[in-house]
Write a structure and sequence with these properties.
It is a single chain. The radius of gyration is 29 Å and the shape is globular. The chain has about 160 residues and is mainly α. It folds into two domains: about 40 residues; about 100 residues, no CATH class. α2 packs across α3 and α2 packs across α5. Strands 1-2 form a two-stranded antiparallel sheet. About 45% of the residues lie in helices and about 5% in strands. It is built from five helices and two strands.
Length: about 160
């Protein structure tokens, strides 16, 4: 009789160890779609319905979407427009040209904000005022839209697919 109890107890211990091992193997610290936890951060994960990734926007060269702050998006906008717009709007030449470009992006940012260019459909975006210079390119308008959206969201950032050069 004691041998039967010992055998039954041994079977329970072995069965429990097997179940724990199987459960442990299925409970790895990695997601099969994303890998370790740090691979999941920043991605949209639908619980219960499988995992999905964000919209696959690229920069045309195989790059992936990045999230930038409003200031980073403004810096992109500044780089794209400073030579075409800053040539008049930094120096005030021709006479009467409004000055809203500074020596660099950091100096220009508060000038744009003061003029309200961080608002949707601003005069900078629409060229609503009489203007002898060229208009913004499609890429530059996209940069304005991304920056304005990020500013409206409290500067938290917007998805940028690159480009805009």
């Amino acid at each position: 009789m004691p041998k039967a109890r010992f055998t039954a107890a041994l079977l329970l211990v072995v069965a429990g160890a097997s179940a724990t091992g199987a459960a442990g193997a299925g409970c790895a610290d990695e997601d099969p779609n994303y890998g370790p936890p740090e691979g999941i951060r920043g991605r949209k994960v639908e619980f219960g319905g499988g995992a999905t990734e964000p919209e696959p926007a690229t920069d045309g060269g195989g790059g992936t979407t990045t999230v930038k702050t409003a200031k980073q998006l403004f810096d992109d906008l500044y780089r794209s427009t400073s030579s075409s717009c800053g040539s008049c709007h930094l120096s005030g030449s021709p006479p009467g040209a409004t000055i809203f470009y500074g020596a660099d992006a950091n100096a220009t940012y508060p000038l744009f904000k003061a003029k309200g260019y961080d608002q949707a459909n601003s005069a900078f975006y629409t060229k609503a005022l009489p203007h002898v210079g060229g208009s913004l390119t499609a890429d530059q308008k996209k940069l304005v839209e991304l920056w304005v959206a990020a500013e409206a969201g409290g500067g938290a950032g917007a998805a940028d697919a690159g480009g805009g050069g």
